[in-house]
Hints:
435 residues, mainly alpha, two-stranded antiparallel ribbon
Amino acid sequence: xxxxxxxxxxxxFLALLFLFRLGYGLCSDIVFEDQRQVYILGLKYFCTxxxxxxxPDVTLGIQIPGALQALAVGLPLKIWPIPEAPYxxxxxxxxxxxxxxxxxxxxxxPKFPSWILWTWVLTCPxxxxxxxxxxxxxxxxxxxxxxxxxFMETIPTLSLGLIAPWLCNAMIGFALLWNAQFHLSTVILVxxxxxxxxxxxxxxxxxxxxxxxxxxLIGAALSGAFLLPTYLQYGLxxxxxxxxxxxxxNQSNFLAFFTILARYFSLxxxxxxxxxxxxxxxxxxxxxQYLWAAPFIIVAGILGVAQPIVMLxxxxxxxxxQKDWKAVKVLAWGxxxxxxxxxxxxxxAPAAHTYFxxxxxxxxxxxxxxxxxxxxxxxxxxxxxxLVCNLVFALSVAMDNFQHRSLYQERATFxxxxxxxxxxxxxxxxxxxxx
Length: 435
């Protein structure tokens, strides 16, 4: 097979994965209140033309400042006024960022089979479920990918020298204030910025670090431009949307160490229970309803439990064929420590989606953990089984959502709201919201 034929097959492979992800997103839950409220944010902007000074509401009295969330949903509707338009935009956004991430991982791990790496990055349950649905955390992935790639390329022990330093810093700054307008988990990114600037200062001197800071601020200004009108209109205190209330010592999260660790590793694993029901009865009912998929789901679930265990045990590994294994391990475990400490000062319990922004880190760690076995025949077979079972599992979830919770259960209502420019047909914003 010629190189051009291989390239053509690869493009076809990516096109199929994009369509799969888009279809999955279109079948996702729009009935749940959080998803619906995010859609209404953009629909309100489309219908009224009012500048959206605030984005998602975290809880009563706390709303994230900035226009990006409403614009990310509303502008696609202006370009193509059909209910699916925001899903298409999000699909393109998340797909492009995940392709960037898979490309970057493949440069770190050139011996890792590309078909396994790319397929898992694009279809693992968390990447699929939390980046295709109209939910604020879905947009965090885009910023998270650019942030962590930019960060790693500024750290000498992790950098591959693939991206110019000025661009890395601009990516970090842009991603920081991009994510700040979607989710409060952005606060855990700040220590990485300090660490990046420290290493740039230490390895290249003051002039280089100052240049890096300059481009970081340029990048931040690009995304921060959508945040500035809020503070100009409302001032610093009211413009913060009450987000300062989200910071409070929470001793109940102190004992959640192992819960956070398990959920952290599960971000990169084939987590099944989370996506087929909230308790055992619901999960058994799901398996009974989709008996044709049940064997695949069970196998996927077993392998999904094994993955975090392997990641935990492999943390003890000292010898590794990858020379930067130690740096990747420190990054992954350091990120977990940062997440744990951050929850000691968070008003909410440690749900996995609240640290979804760290997916690039834990995914890279997972691939490094597996990389010593990539030449083994058994590994190829197990990986192939996992990928097939995961795709069947995803298909069954999409079918269930399509029938009970998707946009297509009430598309006519959404269409009418768009045509009549009356967002209240879909629903009202929550009481006491600032937008």
